[in-house]
Specification:
Elements: H1 4-16, H2 29-38, H3 51-62, H4 64-73, H5 82-88, H6 100-110, E1 119-122, E2 128-129, E3 133-140, E4 145-151, H7 155-176, H8 185-200, H9 202-215, E5 222-223, E6 236-240, E7 245-246, H10 250-255, H11 260-277, E8 281-282, E9 290-293, E10 301-304, E11 310-311, H12 315-329, H13 333-342, H14 352-367, H15 376-389, H16 396-415, H17 421-437, H18 439-456, H19 460-514, H20 521-536
Helix pairs in contact: 3-4, 3-5, 7-8, 11-16, 11-17, 12-13, 12-17, 13-14, 14-15, 15-16, 17-18, 19-20
């Protein structure tokens, strides 16, 4: 059960911005809206604010955990109207830093030895502060420069409190609105729980950082700072400090002599390498987490931090994604629609012809546009809008991937406006498809499976005979199953009629007894008891 005090705060804010008016049609909606207007907080009105702006302001009032939820929902254009997602995309996670001396005590409590036996210097002034943690610069005894990330005190309790409130709201929404099955509020909240709890576990972030670092250890594309695992724990993480140019500081990048085109195209290469080659991608690549190494301007290298949110696709999902993106790049719209339908993401029947027409109308004009206006991420967002109309919902890992793609292309075009993600990405994707599904890959898979097939070969005749026997008996089994279900349905129908008859007799017995006649009350009550007992038996 969520805390009542927090529920009241959420209800107050929801009424202040009249969010109950945004609920979908339902018999209870007029009653809820009336209750909303009875709350004094709603009397202030919302002025000329749009629905999305009201939702954004409400989440900001509710605090950082709700803001992060709004930031995730900003990518769910397969569920929410575009006007809402555009407003939510402007949510900012601004939180004042907590006391540096308190941070020092928290760090020392998690270390295996006293602070002064590990650090020559620990700066109480944080480098950065966010809703979950803040980062302090420090120097090791050997002179190495590091940063120490420490969770905010009490953040786990606040997160769990707000997650309980969100879960309660999701269950209520699913109970009241049948159409909510198309966007699964409880599943959305569960997905967010997975994301936010990953940010609370700095050991997991350290593991993600080290895995990503290994993937790009000798790569000129991306540098991930090393984590000092012996000094890190669930609440504290110590990693090497980097000195790079913020990726959104275009003037500094140009002043360093870095070619903007090469830098932007390398960002696209990193995205495709993370997703298709390593199947492990940084899912929080906003400008605050990405820097540029100024040491080698002729071969620019990105530097990334904060790997708490990382994504990984199943083999099947990766295959579907690769084929979908390649279909878009090759303008194979029927093939794209086939992949979407076969993926099983639709929550209802899909009119294939109309869906294909709608997809073509969205993609064809974009593919025919000039280079400066041909953007990949907005195209993906429009396809998610279309998916919502057809009750098609992609898995959460695809949502994290889309969020990464939006950041990558946005950053790339801010560095080099003529970035053509299509031209850069297509050969990389085709090379991956050839590696995974080309003749050499197919021959290798056959060679690996050959011993297993050879071991099963002696059993094949018997398995084939059993399969044919099963097919021969299948019609009889289907008839028996149909008879079983028909008998069960008839039994339940009789029990329902018996139960209704018992209730009717009980009501007549009660009326007879109340009116003082009495001569039939007991026989009818006995008959009602018998009928109800029969109806309730298993």
């Amino acid at each position: 059960m969520p805390p009542i005090s927090r529920l009241l705060v959420v209800a107050h804010v929801a009424c202040r911005y009249r969010l109950l008016s945004l609920l979908p049609p339902h018999p209870a909606r007029p009653f809820l809206v009336l209750l909303q207007y009875l709350m004094p907080s709603s009397w202030l009105g919302t002025g000329n604010l749009s629905e999305g702006e009201r939702l954004k302001l409400a989440l900001e009032r509710l605090g950082p955990i709700f803001i992060k939820f709004g930031q995730l929902m900003a990518t769910r254009r397969d569920m929410l109207p575009p006007e809402w997602t555009e407003a939510l995309a402007h949510l900012q996670d601004r939180v004042a830093p907590f006391d540096g001396a308190q941070a020092r005590r928290l760090v020392e409590a998690s270390l295996p030895r006293p602070l002064d036996e590990i650090f020559a210097h620990f700066d109480d002034t944080p480098l950065a502060s966010a809703s979950v943690a803040q980062v302090h610069p420090a120097t090791l005894l050997d002179g190495g420069q590091v940063v120490v990330k420490v969770l905010r005190p009490g953040v786990e309790q606040r997160v769990e409190r707000d997650l309980k409130v969100m879960g309660f709201g999701a269950r209520l929404l699913e109970a009241l609105w049948a159409d909510s099955r198309y966007f699964h509020p409880r599943k959305v909240v569960h997905d967010y729980q997975t994301v936010i709890r990953a940010e609370l576990d700095l050991e997991r972030e350290a593991s993600n950082s080290e895995a990503m670092r290994r993937h790009f250890l000798f790569s000129p594309l991306l540098y991930i700072p090393a984590v000092h695992l012996a000094l890190s724990s669930r609440r504290v993480m110590v990693s090497d400090r980097i000195h790079g140019i913020p990726v959104n500081d275009i003037a500094a990048i140009r002043a360093a002599g870095i070619d903007p085109r090469v830098l932007a195209e390398r960002g696209v290469e990193i995205f495709f390498a993370q997703v298709f080659r390593h199947n492990f991608f940084h899912a929080d690549m906003h400008p605050g987490n990405i820097f540029v190494n100024p040491e080698h301007p002729q071969s620019p290298q990105y530097m990334a931090v904060d790997c708490a949110i990382a994504g990984r696709l199943s083999k099947q999902d990766l295959n579907v994604l690769g084929r979908m993106v390649l279909a878009v790049m090759r303008e194979d719209y029927p093939g794209l629609v086939d992949q979407v339908i076969r993926a099983g993401w639709a929550r209802g029947p899909v009119d294939r012809h109309r869906f294909e027409q709608a997809v073509t109308e969205i993609i064809a004009p974009v593919r025919g546009a000039n280079l400066e206006s041909m953007e990949f991420a907005p195209l993906v967002l429009r396809l998610f809008d279309l998916a919502r109309d057809y009750h098609i919902e992609a898995p959460v890992q695809y949502i994290l991937l889309m969020k990464t793609l939006v950041h990558i292309e946005g950053l790339g075009r801010s560095i080099y406006p003529q970035l053509d993600i299509w031209t850069v990405g297509r050969p990389l994707l085709e090379a991956w498809m050839m590696e995974e599904y080309g003749p050499a890959a197919t021959a290798n898979k056959l060679r690996n499976r050959l011993p297993e097939w050879a071991a099963q070969l002696p059993d094949m005749p018997e398995l084939l005979r059993d399969g044919l026997e099963s097919l021969r008996h299948q019609p009889q089994q289907q008839r028996e199953m149909a008879h079983y279900f028909e008998t069960g349905l008839r039994r339940h129908r009789h029990k329902m009629l018996g139960g209704l008859g018992g209730l009717g007799l009980a009501a007549l017995a009660a009326v007879d007894a109340l009116h003082g006649i009495g001569q039939w009350a007991w026989p009818m009550a006995a008959g009602a008891l018998v009928l109800l007992a029969w109806a309730c038996r298993r």
